[in-house]
Specification:
Length: 742
Amino acid sequence: MISMSKIILSIGGMSCSACSSGLEKYLNKQEGIISASVNLVLAQAFIEYEDSITIEKLEEYIKEAGFESLGVYDEQKELKKDKSLSFLIIFGVLALVVLYISMAPMFKLPTIPYVDMHKNPINYALCLFFLTVIFIIYGNDIFKSGLKNALHRTSNMDTLVSIGVVASFGYSLFNMVMVLIGNDVMYYIDNLYFESCAIIIYFIKLGRYIDNRSKEKTKEALKELVQITPTSALLKRNDTEVEVTIDEIKKDDILICKPGMKVAVDGVVVEGNTHVNQSFITGEAKPIKRKINDKVIAGSVNLDGYIEYRAQKIGKNSTISEIVKLVVEATNTKAPIQRIADKVSGYFVPSIIAIAIVTLIVYLLCGYTFSQSIMTFVTVLVVACPCALGLATPLAIVVSEGLCAKNGILVKNSKTLENAHKVDTLIFDKTGTLTYGNLKIFKIFNYSKYSDKDLIKRVASIESKTSHPIAKAFDSYVQEHNLTLSDVKSFKNISGMGLQGKIDNKTLYIGNDKLFKKLKIENSKKKDELYLSQLGNSIIYVIEESKIIGLIGVQDIVRDNAKETITKLKKLDKDIIMLTGDGQNIANIIADSLGIKNVIADVMPQDKTKVVKKLLAEGKTVMMIGDGINDAPALASASIGVSINDATDIAADSSDVILINNDLEKIISLIHISKKTVINIKQNLFWAFFYNCCMLPIAIGLLKPFGINMNPMIAGLAMTLSSLTVILNALRLKRIKIKSSN
């Protein structure tokens, strides 16, 4: 079996979908690369590769394709200060100067005598030439990218612009030489198009700046997560407090967190109790109590108590880092709709070059001057740049992924985000998913002189001597009520019946109804037992010496919001199924309380997958929600697998979505976000294609008979505005209000 690794590399030099799709195709052809997915918005390549090749080799492939590897993606890296705005302002002023010098005579504005095209044509030509050269130097990255991609047969937006600008500049340069040598000066001075070259470059740079700023906004949720954790912590060392940096913390170190401080790393409370705010990861602002043995997450704010906690997950293993990693990996996968756009974009650029060449030839054959023909050629190339097409899908996906992460929904791939709203059947595991999976005391029948707390304290003291799951129910009660366990003597396990022990010189028996036969006493509490049994409880009798002093019902408790979630899903016309390995009686009790009609019980782990596959074969789109090892195959088989955050590692690995705060209602939020995202993507693609469908005929000149015309400068502005339309539409997704139904 081939050993495989994954890596995310930051990429420089990409400017449109043709860049990302071209690089992706090139990487996927290389030996040793299993799969590669290139994300234009995040400027990253997510690569799965054989361990036989090195990262250096991967970076070499990227360079060969005409792009630059900026190293392994690091979510902790400081953002560099963006200096592009300063240059944009400076060149914006220069662009206005160029436009004024070239356009003033046309609009009968006052001209600058020294560079007046009629009075001083040579000065006019040289001034525009030198100013345009400055712009060409400013846009050297465009020409480098265009040349590299042309050489590697992965033509992109920069290729179109480069061909157009070079053609326009070369033609203008020839005309300038004619002016300098005094050959028909007035004719050639009217055919200088240096200003078109300069303005096109400026508009490309302006559009790219807007794109980059918008892309940065899509990453805000990730940045917020990265910046949540503090940079230092209090380390307990020899009963003293020492302030250390995060990097100095080692696993199992004991750390201190005082009121108002943030938890530095993921850990477990070993001393004290408090309330913490972890809304940054759960979306729930309500304070959560944390006591001994409870987990705390890095970045949580300690509200009111002093705690000491043992460091468990540090650095890149922390919850925050794992979330950032999952979200970044998800945004680097391709949604099906994105692959269609990429495929179209791959054919689009060569087609536009061909159309531009044909247009040039047709214009010349139809008797147009070379000047008119070359300008039309340049206009076609510039106006058809696929910037908007390249941003349409990935920008919407990244915004939505960030929105999901901010609300405690981790979506592992873009396909899931696109398809979640299509789900028509939801299968819920029972234990640990619809219920908490931990036994709780449901009801106490107290027949003794002891208070309920004293009775449970006696039972818990004996149960503490075992590792039986029922013991955890009593342990939870003890923790919640701050009880102190009693000293137990003569402890004994009675096989198949229960436990025995002495407290305060009195023998206690704790167990099932088989104890009555052993002790040769009569069970006078069968009516109460029947009541508890009908409600799905496990039955525990408490007998002191030979007298029944208590009857306790223990059961798994339904999760908060479970019933509300099921009700809302039904209103969305979703079919709901409970799938469980528990007996039919207990399953029906839980299902009835939640309003679930379709119950499949007594199912073996391997049979859960068969149920999912049967529904898929019937044409259903199935979402499976589970938490255990036995759910993993079904999670992997379903159209979409959802695991809660308390799930086993294998269940989480097999799922497509993880609910960070175990809130089942977030499933409805996911469906809602998915629906809005797909609508937004379709809108983006429509506007991108609509723009090209409208602008291309105008650029070619088909509407000239109606007085509608276009020049290269207007084409550059139109291209920028088309990208801006798509960007603003995608950013509307950030305003989605997380709600449960439409």
